[in-house]
Amino acid sequence: MRSKIVAGNWKMNLTFEKADELLYQIGEQLEKGVPQDVELIVCPPSVYLELATDFAQEVEFKVGSQNVSQYSKGAYTGEISAEMLSSIDVDYCIVGHSERRKYFKETSKELSLKVEQLLEYGIQPIFCVGELLEERESGKHFDVLKSQLSEGLFNLSESEFSNIVVAYEPVWAIGTGKTASPEQAQEVHAFLRGLITEKYGKELADETTILYGGSCNAQNAKELFAQNDVDGGLIGGASLKPIDFIEIAKSF
Ligand code: PEP
What we know:
The protein has helices at 16-31, 49-55, 82-87, 98-103, 108-120, 133-137, 141-153, 158-161, 182-200, 202-207, 221-225, 242-249, and strands at residues 4-9, 38-43, 62-65, 92-95, 124-129, 165-168, 209-213, 232-235. By secondary structure, it is α/β, with parallel strands linked by helices. The protein has a single domain (69-249), classed as TIM Barrel, CATH 3.20.20. An 8-stranded parallel barrel has the order 1-2-3-4-5-6-7-8, surrounded by 5 helices. Helix 2 (49-55) links the parallel strand 2 and strand 3. Helix 1 (16-31) crosses helix 12 (242-249), helix 5 packs across helix 7 (141-153) and helix 7 packs across helix 9 (182-200). The longest helix has 19 residues, at 182-200. The chain is globular. Phosphoenolpyruvate binds at residues 9, 169, 174-175, 213-216, 234-238.
């Protein structure tokens, strides 16, 4: 179902005490009111996921993991399976973030296996695509985005795909303070929805939630979210500031 979503990616930040404090502060801000039709997702480091899912029993937000193993179980030291995430009530998982593609060399094949694992355990993937600055500057960004989307997701059936949230995150905008303009975001979101239409038909494409990520903050969220094909945001830095994070969720 197409939803309005604001998801916070905490990345590798915060000690246990700070994570606990941030969850509490998000809860406090939420009490002041966020539109009912906006889904808020918090994606802390995996060691704090259970803390977050405990909070989520009292406070209106969903919990997402930042990663999952491509394997189901067994001798994969250090990995966390989709079944484990599901056993602590995790709702979403980010897949294919550019930092994982870059620093951990995750390939489209691995990402597609991760998506399959998540779907098997009822966890919704937030699947990230995004081009590098040089790819945009050389006019290759549409080709790159098409490959990332189709290689990662287009092996799915229609009913499987209906559980996917897509996030467009231009790599040049992540953590740089350089946001895509609302027009640039809309152009790419419409392009992605068009690819989904070609593959799965208009009805499913219209139902797909496509988020924008990349230096989205309380100042620029309103303009970005006002675009027809922008259904919300995947927020990095600003998600560590409770007042800003909730302000972004009020920007629809
Ligand atoms: C992200 O890492 O997904 C992200 C969008 O980061 P930032 O908002 O800090 O650019």
